[in-house]
Amino acid sequence: MEKNYRAELTGVFGDPVDGNPSGVMEEAAYAAAGVNYRYLTMRVKKEALQAAFEGAKAVGMKGFNLTMPHKIAILPYLDELTPAAALIGAANTVYCKNGKWIGENTDGKGFVTALEKAGISLKGKKVTMLGAGGAARAIGIECALAGAQSITVINRNEIHGRELAELIDSMTETKAEYLPWTAAVQIPSHTQILVQATSIGLHPDVDQKPDIEYDTISKEMVVCDVIFNPVQPLFLQEAARRGAKTVTGIGMLVQQGALNFELWTGIQAPMEVMYETLEKEFITE
Questions:
Q1: Domains of the chain, start order
Q2: In the 8-state DSSP scheme, what is residue 1?
Q3: Residue 71 catalytic?
Protein backbone atom coordinates (compact mmCIF):
# COMPACT_ATOMS: atom_id res chain seq x y z
CA MET A 1 0.00 0.00 0.00
CA GLU A 2 1.39 3.38 -1.02
CA LYS A 3 2.10 5.75 1.85
CA ASN A 4 0.48 9.17 1.98
CA TYR A 5 2.93 11.78 3.20
CA ARG A 6 0.54 14.73 2.72
CA ALA A 7 -0.96 16.08 5.90
CA GLU A 8 -4.25 17.98 6.12
CA LEU A 9 -3.52 21.53 7.23
CA THR A 10 -5.17 23.63 9.93
CA GLY A 11 -3.83 26.55 11.94
CA VAL A 12 -4.35 29.98 13.41
CA PHE A 13 -3.99 33.49 11.97
CA GLY A 14 -3.21 36.25 14.44
CA ASP A 15 -0.95 39.10 15.53
CA PRO A 16 0.40 38.69 18.16
CA VAL A 17 0.35 34.92 17.99
CA ASP A 18 3.72 33.71 19.29
CA GLY A 19 2.27 32.86 22.71
CA ASN A 20 -0.79 31.01 21.35
CA PRO A 21 -0.73 27.37 22.53
CA SER A 22 -3.57 26.09 20.34
CA GLY A 23 -1.16 24.26 18.06
CA VAL A 24 0.35 22.23 20.89
CA MET A 25 -3.12 21.19 22.05
CA GLU A 26 -4.55 20.43 18.60
CA GLU A 27 -1.49 18.48 17.41
CA ALA A 28 -1.59 16.35 20.56
CA ALA A 29 -5.26 15.69 19.81
CA TYR A 30 -4.50 14.79 16.18
CA ALA A 31 -1.81 12.34 17.30
CA ALA A 32 -4.10 10.76 19.90
CA ALA A 33 -6.88 10.38 17.34
CA GLY A 34 -4.51 8.95 14.73
CA VAL A 35 -5.29 11.48 12.01
CA ASN A 36 -2.67 12.96 9.68
CA TYR A 37 -3.35 16.62 10.41
CA ARG A 38 -1.03 19.51 11.26
CA TYR A 39 -1.73 22.82 13.02
CA LEU A 40 0.36 25.83 11.99
CA THR A 41 0.72 28.94 14.17
CA MET A 42 0.97 31.83 11.70
CA ARG A 43 1.60 35.50 12.36
CA VAL A 44 -0.68 37.38 9.97
CA LYS A 45 -0.63 41.15 10.18
CA LYS A 46 -3.87 43.09 9.92
CA GLU A 47 -3.28 44.22 6.34
CA ALA A 48 -2.31 40.69 5.18
CA LEU A 49 -5.49 38.85 6.20
CA GLN A 50 -7.02 38.63 2.72
CA ALA A 51 -3.76 37.35 1.23
CA ALA A 52 -3.47 34.76 4.01
CA PHE A 53 -7.03 33.58 3.36
CA GLU A 54 -6.36 33.25 -0.36
CA GLY A 55 -3.27 31.22 0.54
CA ALA A 56 -5.32 28.95 2.78
CA LYS A 57 -7.71 28.26 -0.08
CA ALA A 58 -4.85 27.74 -2.54
CA VAL A 59 -3.18 25.03 -0.44
CA GLY A 60 -6.47 23.35 0.49
CA MET A 61 -6.46 23.92 4.25
CA LYS A 62 -9.22 22.16 6.19
CA GLY A 63 -9.76 25.33 8.16
CA PHE A 64 -8.18 27.71 10.62
CA ASN A 65 -8.68 29.70 13.79
CA LEU A 66 -8.66 33.48 14.03
CA THR A 67 -7.41 35.48 16.94
CA MET A 68 -6.94 39.21 17.35
CA PRO A 69 -7.22 41.32 15.23
CA HIS A 70 -8.99 39.15 12.62
CA LYS A 71 -12.22 37.78 14.13
CA ILE A 72 -14.44 40.48 12.65
CA ALA A 73 -12.27 41.41 9.66
CA ILE A 74 -12.54 37.88 8.19
CA LEU A 75 -16.32 38.01 7.73
CA PRO A 76 -16.49 39.69 4.28
CA TYR A 77 -14.27 36.98 2.75
CA LEU A 78 -16.38 33.99 3.82
CA ASP A 79 -19.14 32.22 1.88
CA GLU A 80 -21.39 31.59 4.86
CA LEU A 81 -21.73 32.19 8.59
CA THR A 82 -23.35 29.90 11.13
CA PRO A 83 -26.33 31.44 12.97
CA ALA A 84 -24.15 31.97 16.06
CA ALA A 85 -21.37 33.69 14.13
CA ALA A 86 -23.89 35.88 12.31
CA LEU A 87 -25.55 36.97 15.55
CA ILE A 88 -22.23 37.59 17.28
CA GLY A 89 -20.73 39.33 14.26
CA ALA A 90 -17.37 37.62 14.63
CA ALA A 91 -15.76 34.28 13.74
CA ASN A 92 -12.90 32.56 15.51
CA THR A 93 -13.08 29.40 13.41
CA VAL A 94 -13.32 28.78 9.68
CA TYR A 95 -13.91 25.40 8.06
CA CYS A 96 -14.42 24.25 4.49
CA LYS A 97 -17.50 22.16 3.68
CA ASN A 98 -18.65 21.21 0.19
CA GLY A 99 -16.34 23.84 -1.27
CA LYS A 100 -17.77 26.64 0.88
CA TRP A 101 -15.78 28.50 3.53
CA ILE A 102 -17.92 28.82 6.63
CA GLY A 103 -17.35 31.01 9.68
CA GLU A 104 -18.28 29.71 13.14
CA ASN A 105 -17.79 31.13 16.62
CA THR A 106 -16.75 28.68 19.31
CA ASP A 107 -15.38 31.25 21.80
CA GLY A 108 -18.61 31.84 23.69
CA LYS A 109 -19.66 28.20 23.64
CA GLY A 110 -16.26 27.26 25.02
CA PHE A 111 -16.53 29.87 27.78
CA VAL A 112 -19.99 28.73 28.90
CA THR A 113 -18.96 25.06 28.89
CA ALA A 114 -15.82 25.85 30.89
CA LEU A 115 -17.92 27.61 33.55
CA GLU A 116 -20.27 24.64 33.70
CA LYS A 117 -17.29 22.30 34.17
CA ALA A 118 -16.21 24.52 37.09
CA GLY A 119 -19.65 24.08 38.65
CA ILE A 120 -20.88 27.58 37.80
CA SER A 121 -24.28 28.13 36.22
CA LEU A 122 -25.10 31.32 34.31
CA LYS A 123 -28.85 30.94 34.78
CA GLY A 124 -30.27 33.96 36.59
CA LYS A 125 -26.81 35.48 37.14
CA LYS A 126 -25.80 39.14 36.88
CA VAL A 127 -22.74 39.39 34.64
CA THR A 128 -20.32 42.28 34.13
CA MET A 129 -17.98 42.08 31.16
CA LEU A 130 -14.88 44.11 30.30
CA GLY A 131 -14.58 44.61 26.54
CA ALA A 132 -16.79 44.55 23.45
CA GLY A 133 -14.51 43.03 20.78
CA GLY A 134 -14.79 39.67 19.04
CA ALA A 135 -14.33 37.46 22.11
CA ALA A 136 -16.55 39.68 24.25
CA ARG A 137 -19.36 39.62 21.70
CA ALA A 138 -19.26 35.83 21.59
CA ILE A 139 -19.18 35.48 25.36
CA GLY A 140 -21.91 38.05 25.91
CA ILE A 141 -24.30 36.42 23.45
CA GLU A 142 -23.66 32.90 24.73
CA CYS A 143 -24.02 34.01 28.37
CA ALA A 144 -27.38 35.50 27.47
CA LEU A 145 -28.47 32.34 25.67
CA ALA A 146 -27.38 30.34 28.74
CA GLY A 147 -29.85 32.30 30.87
CA ALA A 148 -27.95 35.20 32.42
CA GLN A 149 -30.36 37.67 34.04
CA SER A 150 -28.38 40.77 33.08
CA ILE A 151 -25.12 41.77 31.42
CA THR A 152 -23.28 45.06 31.96
CA VAL A 153 -20.82 45.85 29.18
CA ILE A 154 -17.87 48.05 30.19
CA ASN A 155 -15.91 49.32 27.19
CA ARG A 156 -13.73 52.29 26.25
CA ASN A 157 -15.26 52.69 22.79
CA GLU A 158 -18.80 53.86 23.52
CA ILE A 159 -20.16 52.99 20.08
CA HIS A 160 -18.97 49.37 20.28
CA GLY A 161 -20.01 49.01 23.90
CA ARG A 162 -23.52 50.34 23.35
CA GLU A 163 -23.91 48.28 20.18
CA LEU A 164 -23.13 45.04 22.02
CA ALA A 165 -25.41 45.90 24.94
CA GLU A 166 -28.25 46.76 22.56
CA LEU A 167 -27.67 43.56 20.56
CA ILE A 168 -27.94 41.40 23.67
CA ASP A 169 -30.94 43.38 24.96
CA SER A 170 -32.86 43.19 21.69
CA MET A 171 -31.97 39.70 20.45
CA THR A 172 -32.12 37.71 23.71
CA GLU A 173 -34.19 37.66 26.88
CA THR A 174 -31.29 39.04 28.92
CA LYS A 175 -31.29 42.67 30.00
CA ALA A 176 -28.09 44.49 29.03
CA GLU A 177 -26.63 47.95 29.60
CA TYR A 178 -23.47 49.85 28.70
CA LEU A 179 -21.13 51.42 31.25
CA PRO A 180 -18.31 53.76 30.15
CA TRP A 181 -14.80 52.50 30.89
CA THR A 182 -13.35 55.50 32.65
CA ALA A 183 -10.06 55.46 34.58
CA ALA A 184 -10.24 53.04 37.52
CA VAL A 185 -13.85 52.19 36.70
CA GLN A 186 -15.80 50.57 39.54
CA ILE A 187 -17.28 47.11 39.10
CA PRO A 188 -21.03 47.26 39.88
CA SER A 189 -21.72 45.84 43.35
CA HIS A 190 -24.51 43.57 42.06
CA THR A 191 -22.04 41.67 39.85
CA GLN A 192 -22.00 37.91 40.41
CA ILE A 193 -19.76 36.94 37.47
CA LEU A 194 -17.04 39.30 36.21
CA VAL A 195 -15.48 38.52 32.82
CA GLN A 196 -12.24 40.03 31.52
CA ALA A 197 -12.76 39.67 27.75
CA THR A 198 -10.00 41.90 26.35
CA SER A 199 -6.43 41.05 25.29
CA ILE A 200 -4.92 43.06 28.18
CA GLY A 201 -2.29 40.95 29.91
CA LEU A 202 -1.79 38.46 27.06
CA HIS A 203 1.77 37.24 26.50
CA PRO A 204 4.14 39.01 25.93
CA ASP A 205 2.44 41.92 27.77
CA VAL A 206 2.27 39.99 31.03
CA ASP A 207 2.92 43.08 33.18
CA GLN A 208 -0.35 44.73 32.13
CA LYS A 209 -3.80 44.53 33.74
CA PRO A 210 -7.14 46.24 33.07
CA ASP A 211 -7.57 49.71 34.56
CA ILE A 212 -10.36 49.11 37.08
CA GLU A 213 -10.86 49.79 40.79
CA TYR A 214 -9.81 46.36 42.08
CA ASP A 215 -11.17 46.98 45.56
CA THR A 216 -14.68 46.84 44.05
CA ILE A 217 -14.13 43.12 43.39
CA SER A 218 -15.69 41.17 46.27
CA LYS A 219 -15.28 37.62 47.56
CA GLU A 220 -18.84 36.84 46.46
CA MET A 221 -17.89 37.26 42.78
CA VAL A 222 -16.71 34.66 40.29
CA VAL A 223 -13.96 36.32 38.23
CA CYS A 224 -12.99 34.95 34.81
CA ASP A 225 -10.30 35.86 32.29
CA VAL A 226 -10.16 34.84 28.63
CA ILE A 227 -6.35 35.17 28.76
CA PHE A 228 -4.73 31.73 28.80
CA ASN A 229 -1.06 32.71 28.56
CA PRO A 230 -0.09 33.35 31.31
CA VAL A 231 -2.46 31.02 33.15
CA GLN A 232 -2.72 33.45 36.07
CA PRO A 233 -2.62 36.97 34.59
CA LEU A 234 -2.33 39.93 36.95
CA PHE A 235 -6.09 40.51 36.68
CA LEU A 236 -6.88 37.10 38.21
CA GLN A 237 -4.13 37.49 40.80
CA GLU A 238 -5.70 40.77 41.97
CA ALA A 239 -9.15 39.15 42.12
CA ALA A 240 -7.83 36.17 44.10
CA ARG A 241 -6.21 38.50 46.63
CA ARG A 242 -9.67 39.89 47.35
CA GLY A 243 -11.12 36.43 47.95
CA ALA A 244 -12.97 35.98 44.66
CA LYS A 245 -13.28 32.56 43.02
CA THR A 246 -11.29 32.69 39.77
CA VAL A 247 -11.63 30.79 36.51
CA THR A 248 -8.70 30.76 34.09
CA GLY A 249 -8.82 30.92 30.30
CA ILE A 250 -7.48 27.38 29.82
CA GLY A 251 -10.88 25.72 30.19
CA MET A 252 -12.37 28.00 27.54
CA LEU A 253 -9.43 27.31 25.23
CA VAL A 254 -9.79 23.54 25.54
CA GLN A 255 -13.56 23.55 25.09
CA GLN A 256 -13.48 25.74 21.98
CA GLY A 257 -10.46 23.78 20.71
CA ALA A 258 -12.46 20.56 20.93
CA LEU A 259 -15.28 22.10 18.89
CA ASN A 260 -12.74 23.24 16.28
CA PHE A 261 -11.20 19.75 16.14
CA GLU A 262 -14.58 18.20 15.45
CA LEU A 263 -15.46 20.71 12.72
CA TRP A 264 -12.17 20.04 10.89
CA THR A 265 -11.89 16.26 11.32
CA GLY A 266 -15.49 15.10 11.67
CA ILE A 267 -14.60 12.94 14.70
CA GLN A 268 -14.93 13.36 18.46
CA ALA A 269 -12.13 15.27 20.16
CA PRO A 270 -9.94 13.52 22.77
CA MET A 271 -10.70 16.02 25.55
CA GLU A 272 -8.53 14.47 28.26
CA VAL A 273 -5.45 14.61 26.05
CA MET A 274 -6.13 18.25 25.24
CA TYR A 275 -6.45 19.21 28.92
CA GLU A 276 -3.37 17.23 29.92
CA THR A 277 -1.31 18.80 27.14
CA LEU A 278 -2.11 22.35 28.22
CA GLU A 279 -1.56 21.51 31.88
CA LYS A 280 1.93 20.26 31.04
CA GLU A 281 2.52 23.34 28.89
CA PHE A 282 1.50 25.94 31.43
CA ILE A 283 0.80 24.66 34.94
CA THR A 284 3.90 24.68 37.08
CA GLU A 285 4.38 23.93 40.75
A1: 8-105+251-282 (3.40.50.10860), 108-248 (3.40.50.720)
A2: -
A3: yes
